[in-house]
Amino acid sequence: MLKATLRSFLAHKGRLVLSALAVVLSVAFVSGSLIFSDTLSHTFDRLFASTAPDLTVSPKEDLSEAIPSGTTATLPAALADRVSRVEGVAAARFDAEDDGITVADSKNESVGSTTGAPTIGTDWNPTSRSPVKLTSGHAPHGPTEALLDSETADRKNLHIGDPLTVIAAPGSFKVRIVGIVTFTTTNPGATLLFLDPPTAQAKLLGSPKAATSISIDAAEGVGNDQLKQRVAAALGTGTYEYRTAEEQAKSDVDQLGGFLDVIKYVMLGFAGIAVLVGVFLIVNTFSMLIAQRTRELGLLRALGADRRQVRRSVLTEATLLGLVGSTVGLGTGIGLAVGLISLMNAFGMNIRTSEMVIGWGTPVAAYVVGVGVTFVAAYLPARRAAGVSPMAALADAEIAGIGKPLRMRAIVGGVVGAAGAAALVGCVTSSKTASAASLLGLGVVLTLLATVIAGPLLVRPVIRVLGGAFPALFGSVGRMSQRNALRNPRRTGATAAALMVGLALVGGMSVASASMSKSFDDQIDKTLGADFVVQNGNFLPFPQEVTEAVRGTEGAGLVVRSRFAPVAVRLPDGKRVETTAAGYDPQLDEVAHITYAQGDTAAALASGHLAMDLDFARDHDVKVGSRVPVEFQGGRRTELTVGALTDQDSADGFGTQGGIYFGLSTLERFAPGGQDSALYVNAASGAGADRLRAALEKTLDPYPQVQVRDLADYKDLVHDQIAVLLYLVYALLGLAIVIAVLGVVNTLALSVVERTREIGLLRAIGLARRQLRRMIRLESVVIAVFGAVLGLALGLVWGVCTQQVLALQGMNALAIPWGTIVAVVVGSAVVGIVAALLPALRASRMNVLAAIAHE
After folding, report:
1. Which residues of 132-154 are buried (b: 16+ CB within 10 A; e: fewer)?
2. φ, ψ at 712 (rounded to 5°)
3. Mapping DSSP to helix (H, G, I), strand (E, B) and coil, where does residue 136 land?
4. CB-hemisphere CA count at 13 Å for 398?
5. In 10 A of CB 208, how many CB atoms?
6. Which of 517, 604, 667, 757 might form a disulfide with 583, Cβ 3.0–4.6 angstroms?
7. What is the pTM of this model?
8. E strands, 291-431, where?
9. Which run of H or E residues covers position 791?
10. Alpha-carbon span 529 to 534, nearest angstrom
11. Cβ atoms 609, 603 nearer than 8 A
12. pLDDT band, very low/low/confident/very high, at 854 (cuts 50, 70, 90)
């Protein structure tokens, strides 16, 4: 049996290649994502471990910033001298750093990264652990000299002697490049500007006595933990945070971990889609191969092979396919990881492929996925093969399921579908976001399974409709193509299911994203009342001088500032909630339309008052007049009175938990030093909006980090943010379509082999080559469109339910992107035509007499 299995595998290797490609793609994405994420983690672990001082002292930050406030926590630079006298300290130095600056060249263009990496201004105080070294020029001296990293200099064509403008919180200042520094380790994509220490303190932090941290080197023989205890005892434990080199490196890695996890999970998402769609392809391939080997299997049974041996033979073939696909997929995954590393390097993150990490878990995961997927997918066809009697096989009875009742599928599909529908109904009727989202996830999984199980039941009614015009348009060729698609509902359903999965995903996400866009458009139309909004491109705060420049612009009338700050509120129900609060000028009503359930803007922005979202207040037993303890950054605490409750469309008010906001006077009192995040500008009386926009753009030309936006621009910005998610979904769709095309090609190719004699007879009675190719193309098109119809129908249901979950967060508008849906259906027909090209060509080139004589 083993010898027969190996011969069978080698005899059908051409038919198995397309199935192997599904395994290769699945394994490639799994192994590539693991290698890439392991390499990034190792690279940054090494970077942070090699550059962290033995001990770092930094200001204590109790609150996390969901939205940047522009404040830089500092401590006295004189602590360095105090620390240096502690026993066991070899050296102590202060650091003055700001990662929120903007650096512009002589053309007023930002020299910073465009990938989201920060632009960091810091003091030049090199040590043996510095991540950079001076490779040309000299160290900076005085307030007009600076060093720039070589990668930024190369990218922006900057050289020693070129002028730069540094825009920092205390104000803008001019510098000249006097030296270039080169990274000795990985550059995570950041732009680095070095100033001499006094300049960094004064120009970046606004005080010659301030620092952002103290870096300490341990004396010989003193451990880091021992050093930490001694320094903490000398400075006290309530005001500062103390991190050893290991703790600091872990903290840095944790901060980067979210970014690395996003990449890893996106890659694994692609792998999951490849696995899911590949399962259908493999099941279909083995089912058809077994159907074509009916006589061969019957002979084996007649010669004494029992059911277990036949089943084992088929599963052995699947295992061999999995091993080959996994091996090729692992190699492809390594190539994919190299490509991703090169892509990251193109975006400014310097990672060496020579340091690529392939951990033991990667090949294990690759072979588990590859072999496991093929084994599981082939198990059902193997059981079906083992169930054929010798006499039925010798009589050429096909075992692929033609003519067999679909009663069991109807029962199982109906039960699973009913459970899925109940979950989706529960999602729609739920009033809690968490439970609605959980029910949505359950409903999506169950309805997808139900559609896959019951798909063959839908083949005949749906394809009769989809192909109903074929006889009238294409005559007997059209009628035969429709009947070929109807001949084996199981096969047609499994082939279409591969395409259905991808299109259901894109349909659901398209509805969700369109609904989000429309909801935000409605919210912006309803809320925003200003002529223009001045805001940073990536929503980061900007210096006060930008605000002053806008106020001084000709034609500018009212300018209302918006500022954010992290806070923690202690609520009457005993819960402590950390969130980001907003501060506004008193004239907020003139640039924004806010709906209040109780109170008004004057009460909300009064000194010592705050406003809160109505639903959040109800959930935590807060009423107008309640006194709420509020904690600000730096340990400042106070009690504020709830002056108003808002009833905005967005459940979280201004986009943060609780929708908390208050007057800027309150914010500046308890969280001084913050920067404005947005300016709402109205034109002065008699000044036109077009003239004001031109004047504002001219005013803000020296500040490349901020833009002027009107209502339409603001909507476009939101749409662009949502589009990022949609592009990811389209990428997943592209992968699913690639594998689905392989599935259709495989099905048609095997179908042509299966129908060799039939095709020969059709050719013998006068069917032309062109007619034969058209028949196969039409069959392919109707199968692809059938998958598209099922997928889009399922996706629309998912999308509507997703919108109901979003409605609990205030996104009440439902939008169906009909243009996208029509384009997907048309595209599916094109996919069907493309997938049929090779099988149709092969069929048309058959020798008629040889085909008729085919057994």
Report:
1. bebeebeebeebebbbbbbbbbe
2. -65, -40
3. strand
4. 15
5. 14
6. 667
7. 0.77
8. none
9. helix 769-807
10. 14
11. yes
12. low
Q: What is the pLDDT of residue 553?
A: 93
Please give the Cα distance from 95 to 278 (Å, whole number).
54
Q: What is d(CA 443, CA 237) in angstroms, rounded to the nearest whole number?
A: 51
Largest CA distance in the chain: 103
> How many C-alpha atoms does 231 have within 13 Å on its Cβ side?
35
What span, in angstroms and rounded, lies between the C-alpha atoms of 26 and 446?
23
Q: What is the pLDDT of residues 475-521, one digit of tens each?
A: 888 888 888 888 878 778 877 887 888 788 888 888 888 888 888 88
Half-sphere exposure of 93 (CA within 13 A, CB side): 14
Residue 593: strand, helix, or coil: coil
Separation CA 498–CA 536 (nearest Å):
43
Give me the DSSP letters along 479-535.
HHHHHHHHH-HHHHHHHHHHHHHHHHHHHHHHHHHHHHHHHHHHHHHHHB--SEEEE
Residues in the chain: 855
Amino acid letter, 543 = P
Distance CA 132, CA 271 (A): 38
Rounded CA Rg of the chain: 33
- At 291, the pLDDT band (50, 70, 90 cuts) reads low
Are β-strands 163-168 and 102-104 bridged in parallel, bridged antiparallel, or unpaired? antiparallel
Identify the DSSP state of 733.
H
Cβ-based burial of 21 (10 A; exposed 0-12, middle 13-18, buried ≥19): buried
Distance CA 661, CA 610 (A): 6
DSSP single-letter state for residue 460: H
Three-state SS for 130?
coil
Q: Which two tokens stand for residue 139?
A: 């160290």
Cα(539)–Cα(546) distance, rounded to whole angstroms? 14
Q: Are 66 and 374 in contact (CB under 8 A)?
A: no
Residue 92: enclosing H or E segment and its boundaries?
strand 89-95
**pLDDT band at residue 287 under the 50/70/90 scheme:** confident
Torsion, CA 756, CA 759, CA 763, CA 766, rounded to 10: 160
Please report which confidence band the pLDDT of residue 651 belongs to, taking 50, 70 and 90 as the band edges.
Answer: very low
CA triple 149-151-154, angle to 5 deg: 110
Sequence-separated (6 or more) residues with CB below 8 Å from residue 77? 94, 96, 201, 209, 210, 211
CA distance 140 to 194: 8
Nearest-angstrom CA–CA distance, 135 and 460:
73
Q: How many CB atoms lie within 10 A of CB 838?
A: 13
DSSP states of 161-224: T-EEEEEETTEEEEEEEEEEEEESS---S-EEEEE-HHHIIIIIIS-TTEESEEEEEEPTT--H
User: Does the CA dihedral 797-799-805-806 come out positive or negative?
Assistant: negative
